[in-house]
Design the sequence.
């Protein structure tokens, strides 16, 4: 970093601290410090797999096992049977959950498809890997899990949707075959089954993804499965619902309970389709006699708003989509099945999707990788040195946006946005996040902000030059300077 840049950083930090301390009090001061930190994290990090991978093998490791990751796009955890949903959306996932470890409180690091998957594959927070929008590419300097698996001798294959997990964004790194010419599980699962059938004697790392139940909702095989027969509301003529595009009847306000139920029925229909195909895949692993030598991780990359009303918005409009920092959009499904851990287990500690990659490396007996910021989930399952919280971030899609942050513990959800509207919810007593108690709980807010700062900063790592002056400028612009 040259002297001018150091001086610039100092000036901005000083300005933020000085002004903030007078005007906005302690918790906002921490937030201002956090804003200044963002561009310090635009780092080039030269990481080499063999030098950065420390051997690590535990009693839970299985070096002969295959590894399968299944990503169910946009699946809200609370719309699954094994998490208590009233509809029979997931008979197959329920069956698998009974033979697995289920994490009841798992949260995504960003509620947007590409950044969330990047956090999963790099085990980094969104502000650390910097891929904050669907159209951005993963920084080449970061190693993703598939590259490590390939380096360790696995056949690496993926059958995924297009768009936000397209190989062009960098997700194909390390894969010998990355088939992203699909949308739904009804395409990716049959291809995956076919590949496994022909390669079942090899040791493989397989990534499967499908866009059910991402919008548009209800276009699949179970479109009418949950719809009320007598429904006569605004969507009656529409088999397929696309809430965030407003191309159908405007869904943004004044919807009746029946209208919202209809949207949910269509969303749930797509969950049922994902469930059907995933069930088919699991049955094939059993038929091929490799289920018991496979480490299986199933997760959703984020959830979805389905007509909820946010207290922060005065308009009282019904909310849809998934670019927010509330439980509806961040609470994810996370199921882990591995031959060396006795099941079933229910884990209530808060965990994160950045924990998936370190878990895979331990369970496959590969090692610990220095770039990974998550922790192996075995630490949680067996209650070893685990701090139970999850951090999520969001960058609103508007000019001069500043990163928004959220910290979730078992008890609390804190959200801080660029308009300085601090939200704090008591998730044990208010899990719908209807009563913001941030103003009267400043100490808790400060503690959670401190937890964020401590966790996301690279306190103990060597910091190199910023990636480029263009990137620095861009980051400053995003910070509003
Ligand atoms: Zn997604």
Sequence:
């Amino acid at each position: 970093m040259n002297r001018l840049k150091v001086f610039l950083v100092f000036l901005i930090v000083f300005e933020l601290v000085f002004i903030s301390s007078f005007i906005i009090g302690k918790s906002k001061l921490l937030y201002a410090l956090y804003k200044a930190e963002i561009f310090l994290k635009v780092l080039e990090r030269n990481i080499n797999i063999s030098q950065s991978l420390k051997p690590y093998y535990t009693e839970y490791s299985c070096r002969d096992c295959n590894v399968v990751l299944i990503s169910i796009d946009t699946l809200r955890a609370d719309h699954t049977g094994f998490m208590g949903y009233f509809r029979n959306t997931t008979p197959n996932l329920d069956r698998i959950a009974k033979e697995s470890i289920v994490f009841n409180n798992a949260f995504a690091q960003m509620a947007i498809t590409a950044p969330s998957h990047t956090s999963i594959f790099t085990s980094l927070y969104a502000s650390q890997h910097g891929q904050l929008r669907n159209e951005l590419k993963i920084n080449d300097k970061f190693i993703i899990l598939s590259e490590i698996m390939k380096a360790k001798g696995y056949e690496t294959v993926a059958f995924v949707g297009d768009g936000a997990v397209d190989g062009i964004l960098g997700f194909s790194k390390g894969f010998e075959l990355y088939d992203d010419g699909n949308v739904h599980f009804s395409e990716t699962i049959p291809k995956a089954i076919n590949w496994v059938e022909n390669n079942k004697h090899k040791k493989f790392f397989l990534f499967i993804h499908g866009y059910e139940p991402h919008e548009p909702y209800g276009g699949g095989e179970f479109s009418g499965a949950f719809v009320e027969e007598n429904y006569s509301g605004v969507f009656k003529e529409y088999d397929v619902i696309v809430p965030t595009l407003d191309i159908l009847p405007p869904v943004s306000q004044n919807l009746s309970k029946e209208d919202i139920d209809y949207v949910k029925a269509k969303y749930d229909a797509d969950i049922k389709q994902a469930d059907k195909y995933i069930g088919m895949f699991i049955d094939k692993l059993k038929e091929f006699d490799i289920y018991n030598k496979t480490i299986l991780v199933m997760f959703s990359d984020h959830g979805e708003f389905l007509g909820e009303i946010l207290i922060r918005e005065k308009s009282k409009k019904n909310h849809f989509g998934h670019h927010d920092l509330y439980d509806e959009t961040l609470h994810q499904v996370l199921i882990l099945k591995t031959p060396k851990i006795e099941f079933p287990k229910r884990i209530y500690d808060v965990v994160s999707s950045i924990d998936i990659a370190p878990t895979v490396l331990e369970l496959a007996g590969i090692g610990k990788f220095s770039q990974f910021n998550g922790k192996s989930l075995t630490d949680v399952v067996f209650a070893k040195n685990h701090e139970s919280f999850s951090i999520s971030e969001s960058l609103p899609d508007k000019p001069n946006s500043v990163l928004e942050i959220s910290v979730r513990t078992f008890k609390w959800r804190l959200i801080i946005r660029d308009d300085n509207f601090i939200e704090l919810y008591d998730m044990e007593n208010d899990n719908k996040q209807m009563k913001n108690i941030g103003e009267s709980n400043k100490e808790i807010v400060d503690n959670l902000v401190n937890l964020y700062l401590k966790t996301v900063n690279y306190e103990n790592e060597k910091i190199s030059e910023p990636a480029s002056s263009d990137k620095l400028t861009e980051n400053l612009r995003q910070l509003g300077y």
About this structure: Confidence is low (pLDDT under 50) at residues 6-11, 13-26, 36-44, 458-481. The chain is about 30% helix and 20% strand. Residues 73-74, 113, 214, 301-302 surround zinc ion (CB under 6 Å).
